[in-house]
Amino acid sequence: xxxGIPRALLYYYYxxxxxxxxxxxxxxxxxxxxxxxxxxxxxxxxxxxxxxxxIKIFNGHVVSLxxxxxxxxxxxxxxxxxxxxxxxxxxxxxxxxxxxxxSMKDKxxxxxxxxxxxxxxxxxxxxxxxxxxxxxxxxxxNALKKAKISFLKCRKLSLQGYTIPxxxxxxxxxxxxxxxxxxxxxxxxxxxxxxxxxxxxSMSAVKKLREMGVKVITFDMLDENIIKxxxxxxxxxxxxxxxxxYNAANYLxxxxxxxxxxxxxxxxxxxxxxxxxxxxxxxGEKDIPFMTIRIDEHTGESxxxxxxxxxxxxxKMRKGAK
Amino acid sequence: xxxxxxxxxxxxxxxxxxxxxxxxxxxxxxxxxxxxPINSVKQGLRELSVQAxxxxxxxxxxxVTGSGRQMIGLMVGADVVKNEITAHAAAxxxxxxxxxxxxEIGGQDSKIIIVKDKIVTDFSMxxxxxxxxxxxxxxxxxxxxxxxxxFGDLALTAENTVRIAGRCTVFAESDMIxxxxxxxxxxxxxxxxxxxxxxNYLNNLGRGKVLQPPFVFQGGVAANKGIIRAFEEQVGxxxxxxxxxxxxxxxxxxxxxxxxxxxxxxxxxxxxxDCIELDFVPKSFECSGCSNACEVIKVIxxxxxxxxxxxxxxxxxxxx
Lengths: 322, 320
Hints:
Chain A has 16 helices and 11 strands. Chain A is of the alpha/beta class.
């Protein structure tokens, strides 16, 4: 059986998990190609304009997979981790896809994930797949166990300072240069994995910054223990990944010698309108430079380049003056 | 005499300046770009070359900034290619070492730069909207049939104030039509527009920032007296307008080029005034290699492809 996985949203966090999971169940995994202009324009065409770019891109990838002759397209519904919720658009993803792309109704493979931890391996959540994929509970259990191992392998690489795309390459046996240790500047690039690591959307933000001599730290390079939900820190952001990003920024501001924080956010992102301001205020208190880069489907590359250049110039001058 | 050139290629104007060893401005031209950056730069350099010949200038460094910096940098052989924010701040700090807030409003860009002890500590640039920039004024001036040069002076003659929604040029326009129908004079409406632009600019870019004097206001829009007065009213403080307010970006990048060449001791990359005569043609095409359909820019100098960029994969840019 061929399962299509859209290269969008939490592909950039959980792909090793789901790839292993489906392969263990004897399925073939078909991944959509990297985001490109056509995928974005297809996504925008089928999606209502009010939704954020990441969702439009997800739909674009779904459209692209429909031409790849797959049996099902995997559309996970991430609901909660413990008592914490995902962004409402993740919770409603199945409906968004279904009502955007008419022919998708019978092609979607939906699981409803209510994890206890960062690892989505609760067997109950996957039971509805047993019939569709013609597998037993024991097979599902075994596949989840293997999936967890792949996910943790990837997390380990992230903690060493590899970006997620680099970690995926390493898992596929490719050579990747080791993470930057020393650099002129260290910047926390705060944003969701699907914005930071989709090179088309972020205009290769990580690469651009590294070329300017910057060591880039993202939330996924920090241990989950550091950025976990912690009510002792006061009221925490309501949504899982928003909490991760916000706590990571907070940790970097207070515990790591960083020169600045860049918030990479998609136009019309609800959670970010809250945590963006919170991060800006935290940075202000500690006198750490903060910049927002807002991206949408029309963003021009030269604007992003100018802002990165000006920001790093400023940080270098500040550093030189100290 | 050694001189250092600065070129700022913006959407609306192209500025060419030269400073001498003691950072005095010896040449400054503000040229409308009119969508033809290469011709504008050539025109500026041609005028400069005449003066250079009669006054015996020797070009020792060239810096380029503005949205067209990459291409023009290639054409003239730039020593320094810098972004507009860094360039503007460098010039302002040079003339006003104690400046704390720089307002810069250009044709399509506007920025606020916060400076402390001559170092940029914060900045913001307009994002998705042009309502706080020169293009907004240009457009409204045209609509009211008033030359933009007289716009500011007319605003100063207004006796009453009228509030115009400045959130967006489209709404401003419908608001203006309504106010005209209510019987407000042109002068009052223009003053209302100036107030709206500044209000918008301060709301969008100054949000969350502490703006401290001395305030320096530069960029093409600083020629507009109505805007200057609106700024003074809204920040409640005197605003400094630099003598060379329209070409500060070019001066800043000339200063950077000067210090870079002095620090490295290397000769300049400047191709000489002969570069005006080069047959310099940029061309762009849509690559059909994959679904990205990148817009690739190809620069042809005297019939030979000298550089290519704009492709995501590097297929074209690495081929030169």
